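To whoever picks this up:

The parser on our side crashed when reading a file containing two proteins. I've narrowed it down to the boundary between the first structure block and the second sequence. Both blocks are reproduced below exactly, byte for byte. First block:
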Amino acid sequence: QVQLVESGGGLVQAGGSLRLSCAASGRTFSLYAMGWFRQAPGKEREFVGAISWGSSTINYADSVKARFTISRDNAKNTGYLQMNTLRPEDTAVYYCAAGNTMNGVVRGTPDYWGQGTQVTVSS
């Protein structure tokens, strides 16, 4: 079992950057694919990106390609979402997720969810 806790959200100006962290419990974190999702007010949850257990495969939503970077440090049991050139439409609650298959995470059916962290981008 895995527990996930996001941090690093906040209020930033458009064009700015934030790095979100996802701290995971359990020695087996390195065996899980992980991903990031976001949900804006009044909208459905949206896939942001995912990374395989060994970082050999990384997928991004078209809306964040070239601006966001997913990474992980298995030695620290932590995943990251680096967000650059932020736009007001990036405003949302961001959730990290983990699962035993990459496909499960990408499809939005991970085995574990974090509680989310708010990101607000002002214009």
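<<boundary where parser fails>>
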Amino acid sequence: EIQLVESGGGSVQAGESLTLSCAASGDTPSNYMAWFRDDPGRKREGVAGIDVHTGIPYYSTSVTGRFTLSVGDAGKSLTLQMNELKPEDTGTYYCAAGRSGRLSRPDDLAYWGQGTQVTVSS
């Protein structure tokens, strides 16, 4: 079992930055962790994922060059640094974890947090 708790969301102006954190607890190891986001106007989107063991990150094309994902504490801490935020980045951001995964397949991940809201105003 894994419990995931997100934090760090808020309201900012376009061009500003936010840092999202995900704290993981439990006794089930995860090999892959990622951030997804929901918006009422679009389907769930994979934002960034990372191999817990190697630390190699993967990004969606919409955030490449602006967001940085890192993992620490043996998968117990996941951090998403979001720079140059745009209004289209607005949404509820969810931390997810599982044995394996990819940004295009959120249903493959078994564990999810409750989400943290990010609002970017133009």
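After patching the parser it read the second block fine. The two ends are 40 Å apart (CA to CA). The chain has a mean pLDDT of 95.
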